[in-house]
Design goal:
The complex is a heterodimer of chains A (331) and B (330). Chain A has helices at 3-18, 24-32, 36-43, 51-60, 65-68, 90-105, 121-124, 128-142, 161-176, 189-200, 207-230, 286-301, 311-330, and strands at residues 75-80, 110-115, 178-183, 247-251, 260-265, 268-275, 279-283, 304-305. With 331 residues, chain A is an alpha+beta fold. Chain A has two domains: 3-68, lambda repressor-like DNA-binding domains (434 Repressor (Amino-terminal Domain), Orthogonal Bundle); 79-330, no CATH class. Chain A has an eight-stranded mixed β-sheet, sandwiched between helices. Chain A starts with a helix and ends with a helix. With 330 residues, chain B is an alpha/beta fold. Chain B folds into two domains: 3-68, 434 Repressor (Amino-terminal Domain), CATH 1.10.260.40; 81-327, no CATH class. Chain B is built from twelve helices and eight strands. In chain B, a hairpin with a 3-residue loop joins β6 (268-275) and β7. In chain B, α6 runs parallel beside α8 (161-174) and α7 crosses α10. The mean pLDDT of chain B is 90. Classes of the chains: A alpha+beta (331), B alpha/beta (330). At the A-B interface, α1, α4, β1, α10 and β6 of A face α1, α4, α5, β1 and α9 of B. β1 of chain A pairs antiparallel with β1 of chain B, so a sheet runs across the interface.
C-alpha cells in the first residue's frame, strides 16, 4: 500500500468515524454519480479521487481538508463563531456559545485554560444585573441591534428575558468545567469603563440604575473572590454542596491577557482566539494548540496562585480591583 | 473541459503566478519523483493528482487545500508561520514583521488600522533604552531563553544591537504607511507593569538603569504626542523632507484593544489577528475581513479624534499617561 491510498483511506475513515450512522458507499454513489463498485474502489483507495470529487466530498461532510490531511504548510484552519454568516443577534450568539460549552461538558475530562483580558462571558452572568447590563451594551454598541438604537439602560425593564435565561444556562455549564485562569488588574477595567461611559453619556435610565450596577459589580467581585477562596466554582445563592468544577486563579503581571481559551477535552487540545470584541475563532490544529499551551504554561510558571492558598495575595488583588472600581466610578 | 481539470489547472496557475521565477515542471519532477512528461500531463490537467501528491505540493508552496478547492465550509484559513519554527528567536520575529511592512508599502494604495492593546511593538524601538529593556524582558520572560535565566537588566553589555537596528527599520517603514490607530488609557499599562515587575523582582542592576528606561519611555510618549499633534508620522530627529504619512489617532473608551492589525492594500483587505503574545495569524478571507473591518469602524465611530485636532483631549490623555510613567521612579 503506498502513501496515496493511505491518505485517501484516512479521509474516508475520518468521515466514517464522524458519521457512524451512514452508509458511505451509498452516499458516494449519489454524491459523485458513480456506481457502487466505483464508490468502493475509491473508499479502498484503489482509485484516486479527482480534485472536483474531493471538493464535493469535503463540502458535503463539512471537512477542513488541511486539518484532516495534517497539512504542514504553515496554514491553520479555524472555524468562526459567525459560522458562514455575520451574527448580529445576541440570542443566536449566546445559543452558539451554549452549544459549544455543552460540547465541552460532554467529555469526561474537561479543563479550560483562560488568559483573560476581561472576565469571561459566563462570569458576568453570575450576577443578573451585570448580565443585563453587559448584554445591553453588546447589543447596542457592538452588534448594533436596531431594537436598541436610541434605548437607555434600565435594570428593571431589560426587554429580553430569553437572553437572561440563556445567560443563566451558560453559567450553569461553565460551573461544571474545571478551569485555570490567568487574570490581572486590567481584567475588570473594560467593564468599569463601560459603566462609566454609560454614566457620562446619560445612558442609564435613572441615577438609581447606575447605583444598582455599581453595587452588582461589587457583588460579582465578592462572589468571584469566594470561588477563589474555595478553589471551586459556584452559582450565587446555590448550596456549595452541589458538585462543581475546580477554579484555579493566578495573577499574571507579565502581559495583559487577550481572552484566549484553551480547552483540554479528554486530553485533546482545542484553541479559541477572540477577535472583533465578541467573536471567536476555534481550531484543533495540534501544532497551533501545542504552541499556545506551552506559552500558557510559561505564563503560569511566572504567576502567583491565589485560589485556595495565598490568602494575603488574594485579598490584596481583589482589593485592588475594588479600588479600581471606586476610582473609576466616583471621580 | 470538466471541473476536475479546471480546479487542477487553477491550482497550478495559482502557483505559477505566485512564483513566477520557477520552472514548475522541473520542480514537480523532483518533488513528486516523476518524469517531465508526467509533470506536464498533471499541469495540463490531463492526469489527476493523487491526495498524496496534492499534500506534497501544498506543503512545498505553502498553500491551503481548503483555499485551493474554495471549500464552502465555515472555515477561515490563516497563515501562522510562527508555529513551524522549532525555536522562536526574537530577531527572526522582528525580521518577519519588517518583511510584512515592506510588503504593505509596496502597494500604492495602502492603509493600516490598529486597535491598540499595547503600544505597537515597533514603537518601543523609537529610543534605544526602552528598546533594550523591552527586548530583554520579552526574551527573558516570554521566550524563556536559558542564558537570560539569572541575568539582571543593565543597559551596558547587552548584545541586542541587531534587534534594535531591525526595530528602527520597521519604524521607518511604518512611517510610510497611512494609519488609523485606536488607543485607550490602558495602552501603556503592560509596559508599566513590566517595569514595575522588574523593579520588584530586583531585575534592574542599578537604580540608574531603571531611571534611564523610565526617561526613555517618557521620551517615547513625547514623540507620540508630537506625531498626534501634527497628524503625521516621523522619526525622532528626522528631516522634514522625507515623506511623512498621515496618522489618525483616536481614543476609544468603549473596549480595551486587542493589538489587531487590519490592512487594506489596493482593493485587498488583510487581517492580522494576534495570538500567543507576539505572533500574528494572517488571513485574506473576504467574509472574515468584512466583519473585522466593520467592527473596527464601529469602534472608531464611538471614539474621540485627538490627532490634528482635539488639543484639550490630547493634552489630557498624554498628561495622564506620562504621570503614570513618572510614578515608576517613586
Amino acid at each position: 500500500m503506498n502513501a496515496t491510498t493511505d491518505l485517501q483511506q484516512q479521509l474516508f475513515n475520518f468521515i466514517k468515524s464522524s458519521q457512524p450512522h451512514i452508509s458511505l458507499a451509498d452516499e458516494l454513489c449519489d454524491l459523485l454519480d458513480i456506481s457502487h463498485d466505483s464508490a468502493y474502489r475509491r473508499i479502498r483507495g484503489e482509485k484516486p479521487l479527482s480534485l472536483s470529487e474531493l471538493k464535493v466530498v469535503c463540502e458535503k461532510y463539512n471537512i477542513a481538508l488541511d486539518q484532516v490531511l495534517q497539512l504542514n504548510s504553515g496554514t491553520v484552519v479555524f472555524r468562526s463563531s459567525d459560522g458562514s454568516g455575520d451574527i448580529r443577534d445576541l440570542k443566536i450568539y449566546l445559543e452558539g456559545l451554549l452549544r459549544e460549552v455543552k460540547f465541552f461538558n460532554g467529555f469526561k475530562q474537561k479543563e479550560m485554560l483562560v488568559l483573560a483580558k476581561d472576565f469571561a462571558v459566563f462570569q458576568f452572568f453570575l450576577v443578573p444585573e451585570i448580565a443585563a447590563f453587559k448584554c445591553f451594551f453588546w447589543m447596542r454598541h457592538i452588534l448594533l441591534d436596531e431594537r436598541l438604537t436610541r434605548a437607555k439602560f434600565s435594570v428593571r425593564s431589560f426587554p429580553f428575558p430569553e437572553i437572561l435565561e440563556l445567560a443563566k444556562q451558560l453559567t450553569k455549564e461553565y460551573a461544571q468545567l474545571d478551569s485555570v485562569e490567568l487574570w490581572n488588574e486590567e481584567t475588570v477595567r473594560s467593564t468599569l469603563r463601560q459603566i462609566r461611559y454609560y454614566k457620562e453619556s446619560g445612558l442609564f435610565e435613572t441615577g438609581e440604575d447606575a447605583e444598582i450596577i455599581y453595587r452588582a459589580f461589587d457583588e460579582l467581585l465578592d462572589h468571584l473572590q469566594h470561588m477563589a477562596e474555595r478553589g471551586v466554582k459556584s452559582m450565587k445563592g446555590e448550596s456549595d454542596l452541589v458538585k462543581k468544577g475546580s477554579f484555579q486563579l493566578f495573577v499574571n503581571e507579565i502581559i495583559l491577557g487577550n481572552n484566549t481559551y484553551i480547552l483540554k477535552l479528554d486530553g485533546k487540545p482545542y484553541a479559541y482566539i477572540n477577535y472583533a470584541v465578541l467573536k471567536y475563532l476555534s481550531t484543533q490544529d495540534p501544532k497551533f494548540c501545542g504552541n499556545l499551551y506551552n506559552s500558557f504554561q510559561n505564563l503560569v510558571s511566572r504567576s502567583t496562585l491565589i485560589s485556595k492558598v495565598g490568602e494575603k495575595d488574594r485579598n490584596h488583588f481583589f482589593n485592588i480591583l475594588r479600588e479600581e472600581g471606586m476610582k473609576l466610578l466616583h471621580h | 473541459m470538466d471541473a476536475t481539470t479546471d480546479l487542477q489547472q487553477q491550482l497550478f496557475n495559482f502557483i505559477k503566478s505566485s512564483q513566477p521565477h520557477i520552472s514548475l515542471a522541473d520542480e514537480l519532477c523532483d518533488l513528486l519523483d516523476i518524469s517531465h512528461d508526467s509533470a506536464y500531463r498533471r499541469i495540463r490537467g490531463e492526469k489527476p493528482l493523487t491526495l498524496n501528491e496534492l499534500k506534497r505540493i501544498c506543503e512545498r508552496y505553502h498553500i491551503s487545500l481548503d483555499q485551493v478547492l474554495q471549500l464552502q465550509n465555515d472555515a477561515v484559513v490563516f497563515h501562522a508561520s510562527d508555529i513551524n519554527r522549532p525555536v522562536f528567536l526574537f530577531i527572526d520575529y522582528l525580521k518577519g514583521m519588517l518583511q510584512q511592512f515592506k510588503y504593505l508599502n509596496s502597494f500604492k494604495e495602502r492603509q493600516m488600522l490598529y486597535l491598540c492593546k499595547d503600544l505597537p511593538i515597533w514603537q518601543f524601538y523609537l529610543f534605544p533604552e526602552l528598546a533594550i529593556f523591552k527586548t530583554f524582558f520579552w526574551i527573558k520572560t516570554l521566550l524563556n531563553q536559558p542564558e537570560y535565566n539569572r541575568q539582571q537588566f543593565s543597559l551596558s553589555g547587552n548584545s541586542l544591537d541587531e534587534c534594535l537596528e531591525i526595530g528602527r527599520q520597521i519604524n521607518r517603514e511604518y512611517n510610510q504607511l497611512p494609519c488609523i490607530e485606536l488607543w485607550n488609557k490602558e495602552s501603556i499599562n503592560s509596559t508599566l507593569s513590566q517595569i514595575q515587575y522588574c523593579k520588584d523582582a530586583d531585575i534592574f542592576k542599578t537604580r540608574t538603569d531603571l531611571e534611564v528606561v523610565v526617561d526613555s519611555f517618557e521620551k517615547t510618549l513625547d514623540h507620540l504626542e508630537q506625531q498626534a499633534e501634527k497628524g503625521l508620522k516621523f522619526t525622532p530627529g528626522g528631516s522634514d523632507v522625507t515623506y511623512r504619512s498621515p496618522l489618525q489617532m483616536y481614543i476609544n473608551e468603549v473596549v480595551i484593544g486587542s493589538n489587531t492589525i487590519l490592512a487594506e492594500v489596493d482593493e485587498t483587505k488583510i487581517s492580522f489577528i494576534p495570538y500567543n503574545v507576539f505572533s500574528y495569524m494572517i488571513t485574506r478571507d473576504v467574509r472574515f475581513n468584512e466583519s473585522t473591518f466593520h467592527a473596527f469602524k464601529n469602534l472608531v465611530s464611538r471614539s474621540t479624534l485627538i490627532s490634528g485636532t482635539g488639543e484639550k483631549e490630547r493634552n489630557k490623555f498624554f498628561r495622564l499617561l506620562k504621570e503614570k510613567v513618572r510614578d515608576l521612579k517613586k
